[in-house]
Every structure is written in structure tokens, then in C-alpha cells.
């Protein structure tokens, strides 16, 4: 009897606690202090303003913040957060792919493009008020070079030395002239970080940040990240002083969370099915813009293998048989865009070279395959690889639809094969896959990042395909050092023509960015840099 | 009690070879699989020479046997190493971030499953052959065959999206996390008397724990029912009844005897739950060990997987030991 009473008592207490806390489920309006009743103001004092509720937006994502150290972080979402709590000498102007001065006021180029000198703003401060000078920029970049973490090559491949000329002048000596160096300075490995970062080792949990519109006030891994306006930021103050990022394990839960109103913004990454369904929800806005993420099919032309794909006519035939619009509609429900070059649409120098092959052009495909010796009686046997653990749930459908498209020619027989991501990249490097799907997120927004890693001799070994062409190498080199954009455009167009001709890689689709917000959320600015600037939200 | 003490010591010592065998198996199996953590994280992007350098720094270019003994040496010195992907954080820090979440979910899910199982099983046994018995048996089959992601989503839709009374996922509302003492949010918020954290933590726990509890209760329902029916047909129960002992008293005696196999199942279930709550964790965005291990295996994060396995092995050994001790306390016939 006694124990029964105790149980009832415990249940009662839990019930009361539950009930009492129900209202505080989501701290939408942060400070809960109610304004005290107005007292008669004393003549000498100015009346205190009525406290306005702090504006907070909750953003839901299925990505994760992996590492808050610029010397080691190398994934897109972490870089996005870094772009909100730190900054580089230059940055992409929101809504465009144009670069504009950020922590630097100006720059000058010397020694035929081998030396870059940046003049810093004089009002730079970290989030705790510590001044940020040229020495901090140099310390941070040298730290990246010394730690040699995952993204360090973005510095070490291009920068020979970096020095502080004085408190507000930074001098970079490059390994060779690099036309796109400014875009590199907009990447996190070039961001100055707070002196609290450990000098010679990775400091993954460090939240001191750099010079940016927000500072991190709380970070519970895989649960929440809270950002608040940096009071010492030199630029315009964020319109939303507090941002909460909630981390979800899968797209379905993220979708349910925006439907329930648990979050204000559902960001990366919802599935095409969820996006389509949310478009019908009257309480939500769905915004789509072209992204710089691309998908492509690698056809292994390694001469040391027995793969039929080493025949250029086989590769051209496959390029002609693929129907990008059909892929986009059937697999991605129209949430991607057909892509006809490795350089994404919307970026300067883009040339839709693969359009010449057409989409689902069966006759042309058969013609090329016939030249390679394949016909209805002697079918091309193609092993098509895909991975279930890296590009989301749609990957299996992508492989299946491409299989159907290729088999529609009547001269190709496709065998689908899959391997989980770790195995997949290992197979790629070992040149063990005949045809395989891959995707690419840019490191810096420049055509060089969409061509050199794929097409330059040696740089493309990760594809397991030693595509090597002296003419291509020369064009890539010239394009990287040419001093004007017009000149560079000319080279990149030639590079894309050559890409179409050799067809070692077949561009398939370009990602669109999709963001779902509540109706009252304003100030969402997205562009091909794929960086969501939280400080523009209002 | 001396024999029990000796038993505990023997069992504790047996943990050492168990963990060693397990660790060796995991160490070599992980490395036999194609791919490595460095390639799976950055393999697509970095130049080959940088990739080699990163592999060298991680010690992956050493002969396998050297890597193995290096690892054993470090383990013996209490060093579980650093994760080989993303933040390269210490493995112990990674486990300590994730394990409390799983433990909290496991405890609540486990308690719900046991309570539901015992209630439904006992009701079925005491009303044997009735409609109630039939419906409890149907409940048991249905509960056991429920697919967690589907069932979880149904609960999310009902309580989260339509009724809007419970959160969809996560462990606690942003900004309400209690001061960390044990990292079990319910316990920490009770210790710090933080009522808003307690209510938020309980509300976030409710759906995942209920999902897990209902699905697992099916097995208890059947087991409790069958054992109770068996015990209730024993001679001593008939003797009790013939002497006019009250039904409630009979039930208590019967249940105590019917409980031994149930406790075995409880011990096993708890261990499985710890590692196997991955579907519930994914459905409810619960940042626990299940999703952590799955993710780390996919990326071949050798150190994290090995560390987590050792940790699990030790924990499961501890649970088994506790179950054995409870046996002895419940059933005086059992001696060690």
C-alpha cells in the first residue's frame, strides 16, 4: 500500500513538472522577462526603453558541423557556418559570384601575378574585442600550412610564403602566378582565427571563431549550434541577432519539423519528394536557385585495363544516349537542372558543349557504338557503379534510370554494381570501376575548380582514370595564369570543347538549392556559392 | 556470498580475453574491407601526394601487424586514440558525447517495454483463454512485428504534426540543455532542479522511448504469459489455492518464480538495445551511439569503431554480471 502511494506521488510530481514546462518548449522569443510596470520617471534619468523580444530563427539541417578549425574542416556545411562566424580577405558578394573586399580594403598584384599584397581594414576585431591584425592573418594561414590538415592543400599548393609587412598589410608570395587567387582567399583555410586556437594542433571544438557577423555562444555536437550577433563586427549588424541551428538525422524528420513549426527554416537537405510535397503547404515558402554542385558519370578510359570505355566512340555513344531531362524529372522530380559541361551553368565561361550530342539521341549513340564495333548482335557490356551511402536515397534510382536509357539503344547491356562510399572511392583510385557516378562541390568558385582536378594530367588520379592530354594541360595552365577574365574565358571554352570531344566524363545534372521557410521569414539570399548567409535573414 | 564474490572476480577477469578477441577481430575485419578513413573523407578532392601524407600521419602506411600492436599498446595505456575523420577528436570524447544519449533512451525504452510486457503478459496469463488473453497475444505479435521507422513516423505525425504536443525529434529544445553532470538530461535536470530542461527532456524522450518500448514489449508479453501459465499450473499454487490463500498473494509468488527467464531476456535486451537502437535514433534524430557507429563504420573510422566496440564490450559485460547477481538474489536455489 505504501509503495502504491509513493508511486502515485512520483507520477504526480512528474506530471506537474511536465505540465509546468510545456510552455517553454521552444525558446522562440528568448528573454522571458516581462517589462516591469511603468514607474514615474525621475526627472534626471532618461526612461528605459521597453525591452523588445530578441528575434530568433531556428534553422534545421541534416548536415553536421564536423570541426570548427579552419585548418581541418573540409565539408560544405561547416564552411557555411564558418562564413557566418569568420571571414576572409575577400568574399563573394551575397547573391552573386562576384568577389568583393571583406577584411581587406584593397589589394595589389606585383611581380607578374606572383605576389599579392592585401591592405586590411583597421577596425577588425574578434568576437571578444581582441583586435585582428595582419599578424593574425599570417599566424592563421601558417597554422593551416603547419598542421597540414585535410584542406591545407588549398594554401600549400598555391602559397610559398605569407608575411605581415606591417599591422595592416599582408604579403603573399605564390608558387606561380594564379589568376583566381582572390577566390582562394574567400575560403576558410585563409580566414584569420582567434589567438585562442591551439598553435600547432587541430582544435576541433574551438568556438572562438574569427572576424564575422556572428559568434558561437553554444555548440552541442549533432544537437544544436547557437549563434549570436558579434558586437565587435565591423560591418552591418545581423538583422536577426540570434540563430539556432538544429541537427536532424534524416530528411524525413527535418520535413516533419518544418511542418510542425519546430523550425523556421528547413535547409540542407530535403529529398525531392519532400520538396514537392512541401510546395503544396500554404504556410511555407519553397525557394529554389541554381547551385554549383554537379553530378557526372566517369567513363574509365584507362589504357591499361580491358574496359570498352577506353574507346572514345563508346564514351561518345554513352554521352548521346543519356537523357538529362528525363533523369531530372524521373529521379529528382525536376529539382535539379540538366548540365552540359563540367563548368556549371551560370558561371562565366560556361559552354553547353554536350548539347551537341543531344539528350537520349539513340541514333547518334548507335552510330558511335557501331564505329566502336558494337551492334544488336554484339552488345556493349557496361558495368555501371553507384554508391548507396554518399549521395542520398535517390542514387539507386539514378543508376536504374541511366541503365534504362542506355539499354534503350538496344546495343548496350548494363550491369548495375554498388559499393558503400569508402569502398567506392578506393575502387575509383584503383581504376576498378568501368563507369561510375560522382558529384562535386566546389572549393572555390572558379572554372579552374571544375576543370583542373578532372582533366589535368596527374591531378585527376582520384578518378582512377589517368586522362592525359598535352593540349588540355597546356590550355588549363594558360587559363589558370591568364590575367583577364576575357582571356581566361577563351581558354575555358576551348577546354570544354576538348572535354566534349574526348568525353572522359559525362556531365549529367547540376544541383538546385532548395530552402523551405515559414512565410514570415525574409532575407533568404542564395546563390551558386551555396553559402547561406544567416546575417541577411530578417 | 564468498562464492558470489569469487564468481564476480572470475567474470571480471574473463572480460579481458573477451575484449581482446573482439578487438582483434574488429581491428582486422575493418582493415580487410576496401577503403580507408582518409580516402573516404578527402579522397575525392586532395592531390595524391597530400593523400599519402595524410595516410602517413594517421599511421596507415605501417604494416598491419605494427598498427595492431601500436593500437594495443595505446589501449593498455588508456589511450583510445583520435577519430580519423572530421574533427579528429579523441575517441573517448566522441563516445562520451554520444553514449549518454543512447543510455538515456535505452533506459526509458527498456522500462516502458518491461512494464508493458509484464502488464499485458500477466493479464493474459491470469485471464487465460478469454478474449483479453487473445487480444494480448495479438498485441504481442503486432508489437513485435512493427517496423520502427514506420511506427515512429506515425507517432511523429500524430503527436508532432497534427496534435503539435510533442517534439518531432532531438534530445532537448535548443537553449534548454541543463548543466552537464552525468550527461543524462533527465538526471541532470533533476539534480540541478531545472524544471524547463526536465520537461523538455521528458517530452523529447517520450516518443522514441514509447516506440522502442512498444516494439520490444511484444517479446515480454509472450514470455511472461507462458511462464506465468506454467507456474500457475504447478502443484504448490494449487496447494495455496486449496488453503484459501488470496489471489493477490498467489499472484506475487507466481510472478516471482515466473520472472527468472524474463530477467535473462531483460539482460539480453538491454545489451541489444544499447547497440541496436539505431533505427529509433535515426527516426527521431537522437544523437546516440547507434547512428554514431553506423556512420563511423561507413567512413572506416577505425579508431572510433574499435573504441566504441571495446566500450560496449565492457558495458555489456557489466550488465551481464549485474543480471547474474540479480538471479542469485531472486532465486535462492542459484548458487555460484
What's the helical proportion of residues of chain B?
Answer: over 70%
Any low-confidence stretches of chain B, pLDDT <50, length ≥5?
none
β-strand amount of chain A: 15-25%
> For the terminal residues of chain B, how far apart are their CA atoms?
9 Å
Number of discrete helical segments of chain A: 15
Overall 3D form of chain B: globular
Number of strands of chain B: 0
Structure described in brief:
The complex is a heterodimer of chains A (538) and B (336). Chain A has 538 residues and is an alpha+beta fold.
Search tags:
heterodimer, A: 538 residues, alpha+beta, 4-stranded antiparallel beta sheet, 15 helices, 17 strands, 30% helix, 21% strand, B: 336 residues, mainly alpha, MetI-like fold, 2 domains, 14 helices, globular
Explain this structure to me?
The complex is a heterodimer of chains A (538) and B (336). Chain A has 538 residues and is α+β, with helices and mostly antiparallel strands. Chain A has helices at 2-21, 76-85, 134-147, 153-156, 181-184, 251-260, 272-279, 312-321, 324-332, 362-371, 395-407, 421-429, 447-455, 470-481, 485-502; strands at 56-61, 90-92, 99-101, 104-110, 115-120, 159-166, 169-174, 214-220, 224-229, 242-247, 265-266, 284-299, 336-338, 380-386, 412-418, 435-440, 505-518. Helix content of chain A is 30%, strand content 21%. In chain A, a hairpin with a 3-residue loop joins strand 8 (214-220) and strand 9. Residues 6-47 of chain A have low confidence and may be disordered. Chain B is mainly alpha-helical and 336 residues long. Chain B folds into 2 domains: 1-85 and 300-336, no CATH class; 97-298, MetI-like fold (Orthogonal Bundle). In chain B, 76% of the residues lie in helices and 0% in strands. Chain B contains 14 helices and no strands. Chain B has helices at residues 2-32, 37-42, 48-57, 64-76, 91-126, 131-145, 148-162, 185-191, 195-232, 235-242, 247-276, 278-283, 289-298, 302-330. The longest helix of chain B is centred in the middle third of the chain and has 38 residues, at 195-232. The N and C termini of chain B lie close together (9 Å). Chains A and B meet through helix 1, strand 10, helix 6 and helix 12 of A and helix 2, helix 3, helix 7, helix 9 and helix 12 of B.
